[in-house]
Fold:
Amino acid sequence: MSFVDNIIAPQEFNDRVNMPEATRLDDDRFLVIFKSMQSGAVVGKVGTIDGNDVITWGTEYQVPTPAISTGLSTIALDGDRALVIGCNTSGQAVAYTATVAGDVVTYGTKFIWNGDTSYMCLAKLDATHFCINFVNNGGDRRGRHIVGTITGNNISFGTPTYWTTETSTNSPTCIGIDATHFCSLSCGAVTNIVQISIATVTNGNQISDGPVYDFNVGTRLTYSPDLLLLDPTHLAIFTQYGASTQILADIDGDSLVLGESEVLSSYSYGYIKSVIVDETKVLAFFQDDFTSKGAIRVGTYTDEIINWEDDIQLINDVNTLQPDLCVMNDYRVIGAHYNGNTLQDGMISIFNLNHPAIPMSLLFSQSSVKKNIRGKAKEGFIRPTIAEFFTSKNFYEVLSSRFMVATGGIVTTDGDYKIHKFLSSGTFEVTTLSDETTLEALVVAGGGSSGFGTAYTSSAGGGGGFLAVTDFTIALQQYAITVGEGGMQVAYGDASGINGGDSVFSTITAIGGGGGMQGMNGVGSAKSGGSGGGANSDGSVGSGVAGQGHSGGNSTRKDYGGGGGGAGSAGGTKDGGIGRQSSISGNDAWYAGGGAGWHGVEVLGGGGYYFKPAGTPNTGGGGAASNAGRYAGGSGIVIIRYKFQ
Structure:
């Protein structure tokens, strides 16, 4: 197994650039906006990344003049639209829409949204709204922010507000929390105090400012900070100058609770960017001041804490300036920066967080303790050297430490296990495999309905087939899930009940429960199925499928209907057969019980009875016997369980 492709060596995308910004358009395409130091123009071009991590570049398209000179920032609004902002050579704050068709970029009309402006940062709120945190050069240079709206190629702005109490601010950054909340951060150039606040968007593009919180990361000026939304109520704050530090903050409306500051890297300066992938993997990309080379550090976000791997990985041999990140598909992250060792060549790196089944930093780490974002040590994980890794049992232990990831159905958790519950047909897709390639599954078919009864009582339907598998081998693919419907009510007339539908997960097929015997003339047969339908004293019961259910029961009288078979036992003279119990969902539950015969009582497993004659939905229970009606069986269910952490 090869480990060399975790980091793809930086690739040059342009000569002499400044302020490179990368933003994701869709799974395979991203947009890079940068200032050309040769022409002085700001240009954009689309990169397309294939499954082999090869990037194909489109043509460069120039943003209309006058050129943006400072404060360049861009975001993608969706797969074919982006927004570009910055300050032009006259000091005006300008904004342009960018429409992307394939790899062709077309810019909209220039919109001037502020006068004398310098630094700024742009963040997306939703597909038509965005926020900007910026420094107004006029007056006391307090931090300001503003909300904008995009309609087609038109851009409109609300009223900006001064939100910092610090003057002479710089290095503004911001991040959208949801469609109506965003967080702004700015640094005091004189006092070195960092200020942060959450704003609420009202009336589409107006701002209601929340409290302002101060913290000081040291005696030196904080430069190029970054904000990372970990989940809807937790935020990571990264600051940079002399040392990379990070703080975890709890979000409550427009209030913040700041945690303790911790050093992420002792040798770092000037630039840092961060992303979170698949809600759990955190990547920080920064300049290592000790070497001036590009560096990354990887962590895992769980239980409101970032557990960082110990080592810092150098990704190249060049002076890495102004990094930016965007997340693509398959756990790949695009890193844009420029090379300070040359005439500022623009560079693109690819970080693959999903290759192959081990953490990126594991091969290079030799420390025995890793720390989380609040500064607490997490012990008990000894990392080998490279030689030790390939020659010891740690190699196999590490490969098995990766967990399965999948989508589909209603997803819940039970301790370290994830449960996917399908109440109707759908798709279960495995997107990441662990070394352990098996899972648990429960497949229950729909229950059968009871027959029609007037002169004589009809008989009950059988429970759906019940199959529980504890070691089903899984592959990296999509699986169609079929959940069987309960047998339908029969029409008026001389008719036996209708069988329930089969439930299917891959090669596991549970057979629908059999319909109960009709009760018009007291002569006939019940239907076979996962569990068989019941019959009267003279009729023939339906049989069950071995390993899935049991046969129905005969009543003791011709004018009475018998009970339907269940997954746990055969139907009785009155009662339905009991179902079977499963705790796959994290709680004990019963499935696939037979419907009750005439005068029968309720049994475990969702089968119908006198007070609730239809089978319970998503249990696979059979419909109950009746002397004046006919009752449907309950629909089936598919439940999948696997370890996810």
The longest strand covers residues 262-277.
